[in-house]
Amino acid sequence: MSTPGAPTPDTTPSSDFDQAVEALARQVKGVVLTPGQEGYDAQRAGNQTGRTHRPAVLVGASGPADVQQAVVFAARHHLPVAVQGTGHALGAVAADGGVLINTSRMTGLRIDTRAATAWVAAGVSWDQVIHEAAPAGLAPLAGSAPGVGVVSYTLGGGLGLLSRRYGYAADHVRSIDVVTADGRLRHVTPASDPDLFWALRGGRDNFGVVTGLEIDLMPVPTLYGGGLFFDYASAREVLDTYLSWSAGMPEEMTSSLAVISFPDAPVLPPPLRGRHVVHVRIAYAADDLSPAKDLIAPLRALGPFNDTVRELPYAEVGTIHNDPPVPGSFESATALLGELGPDAAGALLDLVGPHAPVPHVVELRHLGGALARPARVPNAVGHRDAHYLINIVSRLERADLTDIQPAHEHLVQALAPWSTGGRALTFLNGRRDAEHVRSAYEAEDYRRLTELKAVHDPGNLFRLNHNIPPATPA
Ligand SMILES: Cc1cc2nc3c(=O)[nH]c(=O)nc-3n(C[C@H](O)[C@H](O)[C@H](O)COP(=O)(O)OP(=O)(O)OC[C@H]3O[C@@H](n4cnc5c(N)ncnc54)[C@H](O)[C@@H]3O)c2cc1C
Fold first, then answer.
1. Which of 91, 271, 332, 360 could disulfide-link to 394, CB 3.0 to 4.6 Å?
2. Residue 7 is assigned to a structural domain of this protein
3. For residue 84, which atom of ligand 1 is closest to its CA?
4. How many folded domains does the chain comprise?
């Protein structure tokens, strides 16, 4: 894909180029690797195993100075830059022939319990922050899988298990340390550079390589949460009840419903093995948890065959979705939806469950509440009027991509009457064509982002991503 404003990458190895790589390796404290060298394969691998980076140069950065060296090197050699934290969205970036900066060595984390904030380096994943903040009764705005990287999730929006109460993770960023295309390391705050601060929170990797973030922590030592599992035979009743139930819930209740086709795998507990189920996930966070039992009573009345909902420490928040922590390859599709009623439930259930063409997890995440309000310091995360997000995931170990993609598309199309037209950036994964990227933003925000891109990255050095191209002069 060629991108306006992008110089042609020169990836032809030459002795000059090789010497430049050797010079880079002397300047960098971490590692510099090229194809075929020991460690190259391990450093380019991520949690998503479906696709593989093949960078011309891989820099395992030990800190911001290494990131600066890598960015300056890439700019000098007209090579695009990609970044990898934990590699949960690796399919989105495939750094073929570019410079890949792996941040997994950058694991610094400082918790300020008095200010209820954390400073998090680029390679940190949520489980580390959850674990370190818990003794002070504090909680970060993590998502369903604690193994996901903090920086990418947060700057992409970040839809978490406390989201209806507190909003997007991107709404709770205080400052950002970022290496921009000119190789400068900047400490960006709402006061120092309001435009760049706005753009980074939502525009994610289009404006630089973020080396650290300062984020808010919330006073949530415990919540009432877990999962209710229903046999697929009662899917219609459960979905209809869930839709009317969720629409009336207070902001303290964040929930989702997933139709899951579990593989017949020995790692799974017998009640789930090879079974089609409906999984309702509950996360109720409030100063007083006592109303929670009554609130979920209408769902319990439907007779789940397994019920793990209980008062649980926030440190165990990853057990609510129980996303598999092991690497795997997957394909996904997503859309933001408006209000849903029985018609939408029927359209969905026509295409999921035992009769679906490919095994999948199809989840509906309930939005609204604080997600519907703009951030206190505005950012580029939009589409706040959506009521639900649908996320469809199939693992490539269980079906061919050629079967998965049309099945996902069919489902998205069937729900088109309820679609807002928008999508959430953190759920786009490998879909990075212009139409998908634009759909992650409000039209006016997208225009402003292209203009800021022209200021901060006119050569589109950061284009191995969900790319926002620089605006061309009128
Ligand atoms: C199992 C699973 C569960 C998930 N649950 C949720 C959820 O509940 N809510 C939600 O909102 N999302 C969720 N996601 C999506 C997740 O937030 C995105 O895939 C996110 O981009 C993953 O970030 P990473 O660092 O872990 O992955 P990576 O693949 O390492 O990074 C993804 C992209 O982010 C950019 N990036 C990474 N580090 C930096 C950096 N330092 N500076 C600039 N750009 C950078 C790069 O372009 C990179 O390609 C989930 C994903 C998975 C696989």
1. 360
2. no
3. 30
4. 3
